[in-house]
Design a protein that fits this description.
Porin, 12 strands
Length: 271
């Protein structure tokens, strides 16, 4: 009886904590976070686990270049069926006195494992990328994820979600950055598949394909995304990870490139 009361108390606290995270994210100022690539596998023996990655670059060219990139992924296990997952990314680059990159994002989800191969969870995301026109974006919804493959070397997930997004944009291609801005308030359906394969004891590869669209304009105004991660494990704690991301938006809110590509290399610390 006591253990049941304790579990209920933990669940209640987790729910309140998630609501707090939602309120924080909604108060904040890249259109896809590719969180699927970072939540493939969770160690049930660790109540708290995660990854931290960082990169700092400084050069003295015609002007001084300073660059910082960080990524964090934290999982908090509550019993055997409940997980709070928190992710954050921050990128900042200056060239002389000019800011060339200023962007970041936050992601929070409360995962509930209905069955060993099936889970559902509400989530919320917040993003900003001022140097490419995205003033702020907030999205929230519910996802369901099914695991058809789970072997020693391979892991696969199929995911669907229904979410609401609110975006505010600046038109960087115009003659002025003053209002009016571009706005997007939309309901979208999310479909994705993720696959991770362990090539050897040291190497593993993870790939994700994503499709997002309003159900009324499923193909004419769709957003596509892809992600590829290649990781080399130096030890159980330290690893090197190269990432490739692309987003193709068939109907951008403001005039801009429809195809966006991001590549990065990180030193990962896992705990």
């Amino acid at each position: 009886m006591k253990s049941t009361t304790t579990r209920n108390l933990l669940r209640r606290r987790a729910f309140l904590f998630t609501l707090f995270l939602l309120s924080v994210a909604l108060s904040l100022q890249a259109q896809m976070l590719f969180s699927e690539n970072m939540t493939m596998k969770i160690d049930s023996s660790k109540p708290i686990q995660g990854t931290f990655s960082a990169m700092v670059n400084f050069k003295t060219e015609h002007e001084e270049l300073f660059e910082v990139k960080t990524f964090s992924n934290l999982n908090i296990l509550l019993g055997r069926r409940h997980v709070i997952n928190l992710m954050g990314r921050f990128e900042f680059t200056t060239y002389g006195s000019k800011i060339t990159v200023d962007e970041g994002d936050l992601h929070a989800e409360y995962r509930y494992l209905l069955r060993p191969s099936f889970e559902v969870y509400p989530y919320v995301e917040a993003q900003w990328a001022g140097t490419r026109g995205l003033i702020r974006k907030v999205s929230t919804g519910v996802q369901a994820r099914y695991r058809p493959i789970n072997t020693e070397h391979s892991l696969m997930f199929l995911t669907t979600a229904l979410f609401y997004e609110a975006e505010d944009w600046k038109n960087l291609s115009g003659d002025t950055l003053s209002p009016p801005y571009g706005y997007n308030r939309n309901i979208r359906l999310h479909l994705s598949t993720s696959y991770r394969h362990r090539l050897s004891d040291k190497w593993e590869i993870t790939a994700t394909a994503i499709h997002q669209a309003n159900p009324r304009y499923y193909f004419s105004r769709a957003r596509f995304g892809g992600a590829l991660d290649l990781k080399f494990h130096l030890s159980k704690v330290v690893g090197l990870r190269g990432t490739y991301r692309f987003i193709y938006d068939t109907s951008p809110v403001v005039p801009m490139r429809k195809m966006l590509i991001f590549t990065n290399a990180f030193l990962d610390i896992t705990f």
